[in-house]
Amino acid sequence: MKLYTRTGDAGETGLFGGERVPKDHARVRAYGAVDAANAVLGWCRAGLDPDDGLGRELEAIMSDLFDVGAELATPPSKEKSLHERLTSMIDPVRIAHLESLIDAAEDELPPLATFVLPTGVEVAARLHVGRTKVREAERDVVSLIGAGHEVRPEVLGYLNRLSDLLFAWARLCNHRAGVADVPWQSQKARRG
To answer: Nearest-CA neighbor of 166 among 87, 32, 48?
Structure first.
């Protein structure tokens, strides 16, 4: 199979099930945003020690995001059997797992008292970028729903929890490196 097909040269792409849609279709935007978030998570993973537990979890999450993208790329009415297979991938159990990872990170962190700036050690800053890309994907999925397309609530729940987890992990990476959170200060407070 060749990497290029030339089938998208006219500005259309194929969804799972064969339907052709414009590349700016709400469904393509949604799974494209998930793909962009996943690429950033790969960049985050590259900044972690290969044996780091966060890295192993991040790899599992990256696979989850492929499942999310595949589900979003499959219109429910077009390929029922394929869609039903894909929708079993992201479920309440995976969402609960993300919540357990958030809880574990927060147990290791000092309580959050204020908004914090998205900075610190490099991998923490990368995780913050990942968090914002996941939020962008979440917004694109909401737009897909707003355009009248069916999306399971578990997809939004997963993306919502994932952005929270990436925030917690950014703080955790800073904490483990001995770097304190940098609190947000209003302009008034900075002027003193």
So the answer is: 48
CA pair distance 134, 115, nearest whole angstrom: 19
* Domain ranges across the chain: 22-191
CA distances from 102 to 85, 95, 105 (A): 28, 11, 5
152-175 pLDDT, tens per residue? Answer: 999 999 999 999 999 999 999 999
- Per residue in 53-67, pLDDT (tens digit) is 999 999 999 999 999
Architecture of the domain defined by 22-191 = Up-down Bundle (1.20)
Structure tokens at 147: 């355009």
Taking the CA atoms of residue 134, residue 136, residue 140 and residue 143 in that order, the dihedral angle to the nearest 10 degrees is 120
Nearest to 155 by CA among 73, 87, 57: 87
